[in-house]
Design a protein that fits this description.
homodimer; 2 domains; two-stranded antiparallel sheet; 3-dehydroquinate synthase activity (chains A, B); aromatic amino acid biosynthesis (chains A, B); 3-dehydroquinate synthase (chains A, B); Dehydroquinate synthase-like, alpha domain; lyase (chains A, B); EC 4.2.3.4 (chains A, B); 7-stranded parallel β-sheet
Chain lengths: 392, 392
């Protein structure tokens, strides 16, 4: 019998919106981003809030409840906001996922309701995954509260939790209904988190946009001084480059190529090796530094360009070396090198790594030389410890 | 700042293939359906087999291993086939899902490997879900072994497991790479399972295709007598109608409409109320009977058409009544009626129920009258117990 052919396309659309003071009563953005619902005047919402964000913004939960009450004609809050622990550790805890699914069940959150996540990347990943699998997918709105999530992870289509000791071992591709970046949340960030997300902007500038790189370089000191306007410009362009890339050739990553993961093969491994002492953006800064030095050792970029990048990362306040970079397996192999294989395994197919041929110009390769990785590690260690060098 | 708009489409393609004796060494269909992999000559596969199927086909596991060995140039079996319990109960057991995810981790199944499920609908749902969430989605091939899964659930894009006592509370929309229907598996089915899947063909014929309904009517006795040719024709047309519908307006069911669930609001509730004593297809037969009688009571179809359908279902060997239909809540409401609300809650949005305006002609409504549901239940009870009626 003849094969029956299935063939269809599914269209996904969402906006990444920018605002401040989202839940002030006269801010109508939140209402505007909920698609009109012909079936019911009221749109049912359940908020899930990162505990760190709730603690740093003590009036937030009340504000949300007051906002939904003020707009009761169109919004129905199904229950008080659910507050859950944030940070990468949250993604290691299967109980948190279960707690979110139970909330969906208990409060009658249906496929046409909105599960709204407010928090850092980890909370967005966790709530996004719960939204993606409960009832085979509940409408999901992301309100990222960190630089990292506002300019990178929060504007994309992925979610995930960790399992078997592996980052994002479990997850899906599930575009949100909307992303809302509220700059107010950035004001309460501790310096580490303000800084950490900047590495993703450096990353995407390095592989795609020399002009953006130049702008980051110019604004480096302002960024260190927590200038909000400079940060907003950085977040906007970084988010835009990520959104453009994701909407391009392969949004759900059916192929092997994943250029936005420049610097990430080492970063993922370092997060794990440091038991998440390094935050994602900090690990990415080290990963970028490693792959930039590697690109120079391979003769792909000039020493001047290489130093330019390392200097920028240091100006921004990033450490370019952590002791875990030099850890070795019993075989004598650098432990970090195992990250290459884990990266390939997670993506599947052929190892595909982004390197640089210049500032703003990425290129994919399918192999990295262990000896050169080792040399790159030594370079970072020396650059990190200039005082010792001078004693030699 | 201006909203950044994301907008992309994802294309999904797969074939539903028909064969017999899939793992005989000279059958190349399995090799043909694995997309060419530029990255590696060998395509990595892990088979997961329904225990019921492995028991009924004692040489199957050896055959699979011999087949992959014979085609070692292009296939690499990552481990011996994993055998797991089947039937609806399997979808209630979180340990089975965990076992599958552990297998993916232990055997290095990556996003470009193939997780191949062989079994009835429950095993396909369970393995499909594991494939959809591990590494954010592993390539998945379905080899349905029952009538129900070959003509309906197995050819679609959904997967799921049960949670909080609710069917498919957790799951995703994740199209497979291919579906392969091997008629050999049908020969070892017990009569109940041979029959059960036929109700889905009656369902789709009733709402979409009067000619197909006529054909089922003509072939009814052959189907009861396990005539393989008649069954193959039924499966083919039923699968085709399902594939066409799914590929139509709303494959991932973003809206409220779900016409293929004709008869299913009651069926889902009955499965739960009978602790899955009723198999899905059997429950669907009762659900169809209920909604057909309801359509007649509403004056939407003639008594002749109504009886025509009930007679067909009985000729095929289905019971049209189970005692659970008359169970009542403390409030006096029929328990089955709660299925309407659970159905609405699972779909979300507005209650949307398919009824009939004729044979081959479905129509959607947004309300059902409890009094008429109650009357329909009485009609089915009487039809089921004609001997008692004659004593009145």
């Amino acid at each position: 019998m003849k094969t029956i052919q299935q063939n269809f396309a599914v269209q996904f659309r969402y906006g990444v919106h920018f605002t401040e003071d989202l839940f002030s009563k006269d801010n109508e953005l939140f209402l505007d981003v909920l698609p009109q619902n012909a079936a019911a005047h009221q749109r049912k919402v359940l908020f899930v809030v990162d505990k760190g964000v709730a603690d740093a913004n003590p009036t937030l939960l009340e504000q949300i409840t007051a906002y939904t009450a003020a707009h009761a004609g169109v919004l129905k809050q199904l229950a008080s906001p659910v507050v859950i622990a944030g940070g990468e550790e949250a993604k290691n805890d299967p109980d948190l996922l279960q707690q979110l699914l139970a909330a969906v069940n208990d409060y009658g959150v249906c496929r046409h309701s909105y599960l709204v996540a407010i928090g850092g990347g980890a909370v967005l990943d966790l709530v996004g995954f719960a939204a993606a699998i409960a009832h085979r997918g509940i409408r999901h709105i992301r309100i990222p509260t960190t630089v990292l999530s506002q300019n990178d992870s929060g504007v994309g289509v992925k979610n995930g939790v960790n399992s078997f000791g592996k980052k994002n071992f479990i997850g899906t591709f599930a575009p949100p209904v909307a992303v809302i970046n509220d700059s107010n949340f950035l004001q309460t960030l501790e310096d580490r988190d303000w800084r950490a997300g900047i590495s993703e902007a450096v990353k995407v500038a390095l592989i795609k946009d020399a002009k953006f790189y130049k702008k980051i370089k110019e604004d480096a000191q302002k960024l260190v001084n927590r200038d909000m306007e400079a940060m907003q410009q950085l977040i906007y362009r970084c988010a835009e480059l990520h959104v453009e890339h994701i909407g391009g050739a392969d949004p759900f990553e059916f192929g092997s190529s994943r250029p936005l993961d420049f610097g990430h093969w080492a970063a993922h491994k370092l997060e794990q090796m440091t038991d998440y002492r390094l935050r994602h953006g900090e690990a990415v800064a080290v990963g970028i530094a490693l792959d930039v030095v590697y690109s120079r050792l391979k003769g792909m970029i000039t020493e001047k360009d290489c130093n330019n990048v390392l200097d920028l990362l240091q100006t921004l306040g990033f450490d370019l070396f952590v002791p875990e970079l030099t850890h070795k397996e019993q075989s004598g192999q650098l432990t970090i090198v195992r990250g290459l294989n884990e990266f390939r395994e997670h993506l599947g197919g052929k190892l595909t790594i982004m390197l640089l041929t210049g500032i703003g110009a990425g290129v994919e390769v399918n192999h990295m030389e262990e000896a050169l990785i080792s040399e790159a590690v030594k370079t970072l260690k020396q650059k990190h410890q200039p005082q010792k060098l001078s004693q030699v």
